[in-house]
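Example record

One chain of 487 residues, shown exactly as stored in the release files.
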Amino acid sequence: MKNLITILSMLLIVSMFSCKDFLDIEPSSQSIAVGNTDADSIYFKSASEVEAALAGAYSDFKNEYWQLDYFVNGDAQSDDAYAGGDNPDNFQIDQFQLVATNRNVSRDWAYLYSTIGKCNTILNNIGSLDDPALTGARREQIIGEASFIRAFMYFQLVQLWGDVPLQLTEITSISAETLDEIYPLIFPARSPQAEVYAQIIADLEAAQSRVPVTAVHKGFVAKGAVEAALAKVHATVVPHDWAKVSQYCDAVIAGPYSLLASYDQLWSNANENSAESIFEINYDGGTADGNWGVNIFRGLDWKKFNLPSNDLAAAFDAEGDAVRKAASITFLDVSGKWSDEHWPQTQYPFINKWRKNQEGSDQNYIFIRLADILLLKAEALNELGDQAGAAAIVNQIRGRVGLAPTSASSQADLRLAIEKERRLELAFEGHRWFDLKRTGRAIEVMSKAIDHTGNPIGYLLTNERLFWPIPQAELDKNTKLVQNAGY
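Predicted structure tokens for this chain:
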């Protein structure tokens, strides 16, 4: 009976999805069958309800994970930024001193699985909806969009934690007789990374044939976003499948995308949903749809997060990359406001890519763009033995910002050249840490990261710290979970 009460409580929690919408559609009521029943309840009663459920999944790209933590995890955890601010949870991430009770770790796990649950609700129930207003084509497209979103969330989870529970089934009915069957669905064990990646790829492949080539704007899933995600996943899963990476990069490059003429146009806020953007979260601004995340990274009202690092600034200078440095970092005088061990008050850096940092900002976030995929294509070509082809793409990216062609010609030298180019091109866009991890370079690079004196900072990164700890709260309520080594 205690187990049954626990499960009933859990069901009431996981059954709720957000009403703060992405498409301005309010979800209607939903039903869960509890107790002995021979008939499963029909979850969605109308096309508008399933549209609202999809809107709820999309709206999660505007939650705290994607507005803030995604950039802390990808940039402050790398050599591109320090934690900044005054949050001890962020300091732990920056310095590789995480503990299982870290609040960022707990909330990120919860955010990602919450969105997965919303996608499961859609994918598990849309097939039983009989409403003429839901055309067959739209049904298939919704399945594609939900599959992409679920894969996108699992890709974050597996990169941060390694083995993670693979939850694909949404529970709509429960009885004492099915308790043994349902319990492991609610409290699952961790699945091996290989299984998680296989599911991510399966979801993305399911999405590829179902979503349109273009959408109303880049905030909705289109074919290019799916193919870009497939390229990134195949470049991350071990062993890397460079042929697949090349294949999916080619599909994106052949699509309706092109580089903007000027690098700064990406960040001027005059070119939202541009030809270079592949997946971009759109904000209207104001109290109802404002991007508060940008105010966390820039402003003089309080000490901000993700302080650009001396190591990154030195990398820009060493390359003579004035264009991308100016677009990525702005230096302001914070005298009399706060101090920091890394930078003088008179030349204090802020991230310059997210420039609309006022309250209720309508600043969009670009999560995938063409330059990222072009450089991934260069990486694939280099690994497949086409050094000339790889160098040509690197030079295309460098040419836009007025830099001379790369001098790298061997495979080993081009690996480092592409790594450097990705760093300078994609700074503060949440990619750096995950790039270092997937290439096996994180420990070596972080051990050499320099401070303001030009000496190594002394990051103590080990193999065990490449993955995060399973949140303690999850371990406490699910005895099947096993903590990562070293925590």
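Notes: Strands lie at 33-34, 81-84, 173-174, 277-281, 305-308, 329-332, 348-351, 365-369.
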